[in-house]
Structure formats: structure tokens, C-alpha cells
Amino acid sequence: MTEPHDLSMDLTPAADRFIRRMMRFSTGADAGFRLKVRPGGCSGFAVEFDLADQPAVNEIVWKHSEIRLFLDAKSCLLLKGAVVDFVESRAVTGFVVTSPGGAASACAPASTLLPVDALIRR
Q1: CA distance 93 to 109
Q2: With CB atoms counted within 10 Å of each terminal CB, which end of the chain scores lower, N or C?
Q3: In this predicted structure, what is the pLDDT of residue 119?
Q4: More confident call, 6 vs 14
Q5: By the 8 A CB rule, do 28 and 8 touch?
């Protein structure tokens, strides 16, 4: 686990609020929010997230206020200079990543987000 010195990612207030809401369910001083970003989807990014008691050996801890984000090396590369937002509506809920110089999406906005029922663990 290392601290990134050159990750210039930004969280919007909506993303910050969502992560803080989720972190209420975590325990332990080393707990954090695991965020994985991969190329894919209409927006250019597919985002996965989860709570973790501690970072994995290969993850970097990025601190934003009191939030600890656990990021793997590939996610760090994709998030460098990016803005991470969280959108909630009646139809869809999900993270939206905007990177500098990114191409405009040809998809409808809803197709880049995660359906609400996908957030429910069964």
C-alpha cells in the first residue's frame, strides 16, 4: 500500500456525500471505499465499488478529507486528472467519471449509469 503523490483526481460534492453515506457501514480504523475504474461502457468508463476493511497489497490509499479511497494502479491511471461524480435519479444511480480531453459520449446519459437494483446485494 502506498500513497499516490501525483493523483490529481477530484470528487464532486455528490460523490463525496455518497461515499460518506456508504462508509457509515464500515468498521475499523483502516476501512475505506474501494473504487475500481476500467475502460468500457458508453461513457468510456465502467466503475465498481465496495467497502473494504483495509486496502489490498496492490492498492494505493488516496485520502480526500477523512475519506480513504482504495485504488489499484490501473484505476489511478484512468482517474488522473478526472472528476468523479455521483448521480442519483428515480431511474438510475451511479458514478460518472469525466476525464480531461475525453470524447463526448454518443449514448444517452442513462446508459452510462448503474441501475438502482444493481446496488442491492442479495
Answers
A1: 11
A2: C
A3: 56
A4: 14
A5: no
Residue spans per domain, the chain: 10-119
Strand partners, 85: 96
The DSSP bridge pattern shows strands 92-98 and 67-71 to be unpaired
Checking DSSP bridges between strand 32-39 and strand 67-71, what pairing results, if any? parallel
Of 99 and 23, the one with more pLDDT = 23
Helix (H, G, I), strand (E, B) or coil at 45: strand
* Cβ atoms within 10 Å, residue 17: 13
pTM of the model: 0.74
Q: Are 54 and 32 in contact (CB under 8 A)?
A: yes
* Other Cβ atoms closer than 10 A to 30: 14
CATH topology of domain 10-119: Hypothetical Protein Aq_1857; Chain: A; (2.60.300)
Locate the DSSP E strands across 9-66: 10-11, 32-39, 45-52, 60-64
> Hey, what's the cell of 91?
431511474
